[in-house]
Amino acid sequence: MTMPANVLTPDLIARLRAIVGDNHTLTDPDQQLPYVRELRDLYVGSAGVVLRPGSTEEVSKILALANAHGLPVVPQAGNTGLVGGQVPMNGEIVLSISRLKKVRALDPDGFTMTVEAGMTLAEVHAAADGINRLFPLSLPSEGTCQIGGNLGTNAGGVGVLAYGNTRQLVLGLEVVLADGRIWNGLSPLKKDNTGYDLRDLFIGSEGTLGVITAATLKLFPKPLEMATAFVALPSVDAALPLFSMAEEAAGQSLTAFEIMCELALDMVVKHAHNVRDPFTARHPWYALIEISGLKEDGNAERLMMELLETATERELLVDATLASSLTQQKDFWRLRESYSEAQRPEGDSIKTDVSVPTQKIPEFIKRADAAVAAINKDARPVPLSHFGDGNVHYNVSQPVGWPKGKFNAEQWKPIANAVHAIVLEFGGSISAEHGIGQMKRDELARIKDPVALDLMRRIKASFDPKGILNPGKVL
Question: What is the pLDDT of residue 346?
């Protein structure tokens, strides 16, 4: 449903400029560059104009004008998305929410906060921390990603195991619709059974149904203690029984269980800053495990020690190190969070973001390794998994010595198709937490249940009948 780009006339740009002001109307290509390309340069497009509204009312006026004239609009938050959903490709208006920065309400007793959508995730964390509360969404890009983008993609991250996806962390939304109307759904209620749940339609819609401008978020008690262990596994097959033991031992206190392969850690140690290998020997697989406690009574560490001792007896791990300080705990997490950064110096990287039933993760990884080897025996799989929620980032780095650009250009499609075929065979999903964007749009149309697709298209047509919002994305 791509709109023609040539309808954005100088007169319309002048009218848009009058809404947001000269300083927040960007027409110069150099000024627009950060808004028209994504981090990996997989998607580089063009914008007719970049607008940076400073209020919900300005967003409303922009969309009302755009809708009246059929002008396509690409909503954009921190531009950290990985599937091209935030990139304008055909001269659309870019509507950046990055100036919407207010904390509208803090309610420590009600365990909620209401924030505007342009706040970075780190700023949301700091605001919650200021009232001794926790907002548990955790992503490596927290310093640049914005909460509006997190909501628009239903972001996941490392906290899903204990707290759920972004969808589970939201009580209410404020959304500007395609025609400029403002839906005020900023309710702090945990129970509201008055009809259709509009909130959940917008979360994960990637800006195709409306522009999220503010949200009421759930907060949680801050853990007073955490036990963090980095462990070496004899094989990927050990991950499932170890995870099961951890869940049985810690229950809801198990706040993280991440696994990464040997090559992933090798790349991190080689390329990332301020990291070191916790072990003196190399191992096939590793797990990062965290147990949290609401009381400072040492129970988290006792549970962790018991888990590691039992796992050693059952030969589920070959080595382990328990963080002895906050600094060492951060060092362990830096090994995990440097994963994407460390792949870039190795050249091209074919990235997938999939989910399968947790109990099938080891088998899926082995099957995917074999499928990739059959396509290119020198390609280097670098899988990492948020194991507890079934999410696998099954990434593949280019063969050593290949020129940059060749691997992605020639083998992204066959490798991604082979991996996704196994995912679907296992009853999984081709998008666990990154969204569909433009990268997976055609594949979604091919594999999604036809009835589900029809319903999605009807919802899109109902909310955005002129098709101005993020054209060419998702559907």
Answer: 95
